[in-house]
Structures are given as C-alpha cells and as structure tokens.
Design a protein that fits this description.
The chain has one domain. By secondary structure, it is mainly α. The protein is built from eight helices and no strands.
C-alpha cells in the first residue's frame, strides 16, 4: 500500500502541478493586495477540491452508466498522462491561452481552479487511482487523502508564490516542471502496461 501511495503522490503532484500553478497564480494576482490574493487562493483550492472529490465519488458511476470499463480508461488515461508529461518536459504551457482569464470571470474559478489545479490529467488520474473494483475503500480514502495533501501544498505554494519565484527563479521553476514531466511520462507508461496485462488476463480467462 505504501508503494501505491507513493506512486499516487507522484502522479497527483505531476498532474495537479503545484509548481506550475504558483507561476500562473503569481502572474494573475500580481496587482492584488495580500488579503485579495489569500481569498483567491482559498477559493481556487476549494473549487478544485470539490471538482476532484466529485470525480472520485461519481467518476466510476459515470463510466458504468456509459458502459466504459476502467481498464479501457486506464489505457486512455495513461496515453493522455504521457502526452501531459511530454508537454511538461518540452515546456508547452498546460494552460496556454488561459493564463489571463476572461473578462467577467472569477480567476479563482477560471483559470486557477480549472484547468490549472483540477487539470484534465488530474481528473483522469483520480478516477483511475480510486477504482472501486481494484482498491478497497480504505485505499481509496488514503489516495483521496494524498490528493488533499497535494492540494494543501498547492495552496501553500500560492500563498508564498512571490517568495518562491524569487528564491528558485523562473529557471528553477522550469527545471522542476520538466523533472516532474519525465516522472509522469514514466508512470503513465506503467499504467498502460498494467492495463495491457489486465487485457491479456481477460483474454486468457475467456479462452
């Protein structure tokens, strides 16, 4: 279980991407007061947590209703997470075109909560990592706890965004994002390999 939680932590850290989020947060809230930045960070994390927890709770039911097997989602999710990792490695912004938000929208909701924190990759990851058919409820709760810890780290990063950027610099931030991208790409391949093994077992059992 410890190995699974460590893997889950790496996947969730890479897909939620606290380092990338702090850079976006710093650019969006540079003109705000400290109190306004704090309120924005709290709202963004609250919205993102609600979305991700919602995916944990109802994601499996939606898949069942649509007749999609989780192993199929695991293959698709692994491929998407691999592409997600490649974007991080090659420096393509994961929220390109969204960094400035839109007039009339609360930046805590868009682009911070979605798609900067509750990214498509994170949504896919939490559904796969909390599969009802594979993991008992206590493991699912533990994975959800890991997700909340990553969100808490993201919140702390946002509150300290200005200080962190000054310490590690934009180059340091870019290096961290690329390292996490490489780890995510490797972990996503593991997800696909696991799913292919399951497909092989299913095919063998039906023969």
């Amino acid at each position: 279980m410890t190995d699974k939680l460590l893997r889950d932590a790496l996947i969730l850290w890479a897909t939620i991407d606290p380092v990338g989020t702090l850079a976006i947060f710093a650019s969006l809230t540079g003109h705000l007061s400290d109190a306004e930045r704090r309120r924005t960070a709290i709202k963004a994390i609250a919205y993102a947590a609600a979305i991700l927890i919602g995916a944990v709770i109802i994601g499996q039911f939606l898949l069942s209703a649509m007749g999609i097997r989780l192993v199929s989602l695991q293959v698709a999710g692994g491929i998407i997470l691999f592409l997600f990792g490649l974007k991080m490695v090659f420096g393509t912004p994961l929220t390109q075109g969204n960094a400035q938000g839109e007039p009339g929208h609360d930046i805590a909701v868009f682009p911070l909560a979605v798609p900067s924190i509750a990214t498509p990759g994170a949504l896919m990851a939490v559904i796969i990592l909390t599969d009802n058919h594979t993991y008992p409820i206590q493991v699912q709760l533990a994975t959800t706890g890991v997700m909340l810890v990553v969100l808490l780290a993201t919140f702390v990063f946002m509150l300290a965004a200005g200080h962190i950027i000054r310490v590690i610099g934009h180059n340091g931030s870019a290096i961290l994002v690329r390292v996490m991208g490489m780890l995510l790409a490797a972990l996503s391949i593991e997800l696909v390999m696991e799913a292919l093994n399951i497909f092989d077992l299913l095919a063998t059992s039906t023969n």
